[in-house]
Amino acid sequence: MNTGIKNLTQGPIRSQLFNLAMPIMATSFIQMAYSLTDMAWVGRIGSEAAAAVGAVGILIWMSSSIALLNKVGSEVSVGQSIGAQNFDDARKFASHNISIALIISVIWGTILFGGAHFIIQIYELEASISENAVSYLRIVSTALPFTFLSAAFTGIYNAAGRSKIPFYISGTGLILNIALDPLFIFGFRLGTDGAAYATWIAQGFVFLLFVYQLRYKNRLFGYFPFICKLQKKYTQRILKLGVPVAGFNTLFAFVNMFLGRTASAVGGHIGLMSLTTGGQIEAITWNTSQGFSTGLGAFIAQNYAAGQTHRVVKAWHTTLWMTFIFGTFCTLLFICFGKEVFSVFVPEPKAYLAGGEYLLIMGYSQLFMMLEITMQGVFYGIGKTIPPAIISIALNYLRIPLAIFLVKQGMGVNGIWWAISITSILKGLILTVWFILIKHKVIHNVSTCK
Question: Are 180 and 152 in contact (CB under 8 A)?
Fold first, then answer.
């Protein structure tokens, strides 16, 4: 009944974490690369086209945040079921996560498609930029069921310790997207719409590969249906685990929408472009730490449910060292070579000079951002998704008054960037202290139950 599952409760911790986290991290890079590939090609059209795609990029980020409900829901619920050797529950949690993901994606995609004009008006961009953004948004919104279901499939494979499979599938989709982008954007002369069509086709292909893999190549837990009648027991557990994660990430995206509007008001389309494109580049750090965090969460979920608390603590320490090394590299890269990195994506001088300022200021917070995301993995693995949500929501919303205050002090758009950087530093520090304070209680409770 445990077909296709890797047991993470025994064996060398460091190698298991590395082997689990690296494909997840690579998959995160691939998902980030979809947007970066679009941005790199669209940036050749000009900063206005980059601003249009960037405005929609915040909404795509919001969509990915909502999809975390079932990605994290799968990783924790299925992972803990595997750790407890309850494969019947693992199958049912997998089916429920996929069914819920489909329902949410259809509803959210309909909202974005129907409200595209109203949503894009928030940024107060020039008419031509807004028109391109609306068209781009409507195309990609119809692909959201593919995105949401693929996220749920990824979570299921991560929980089973088979993180390489989502990596290979997502990698195939990225290669297709890279090939189609220049063809659709320049070959067919579709401009920003061409980037949207290329992403749509690639995401649909990824979804089909997941379906083929689960049905014909690797039947996890023997077999489980993709669509099922929702039962209260499983639905409530998934929502309890996933809603806080999806909630604070979605609220984070709302904050970014406000900051994007402020950046547009203060710095024009160059200000918005700096935030959105710079955020995509900064995702190099974010996705690396997210890969380690997700691997850590899946590892902890199995070991926590099995009562292996010593492996939980050791895995936490090991992951901190891994993220520290990479975080230091990204800090130096952004601080020392921010303009050069930005120019790769938008070669227009005015654009990459402004974007370089963004990356410079963000560079000071990279280590702390990685620390925050790593700690999220620890909390998710033990089934406590609320503490990261509290910290994230509180400090992300602090960015709004702080940004307004710093702008009014004459700092311009740099005041917005400093508001983001300062709050990132605080989030990493506070969440780490929170876990240190409850660590002994968590270990004691598991030992007592065991």
Answer: no
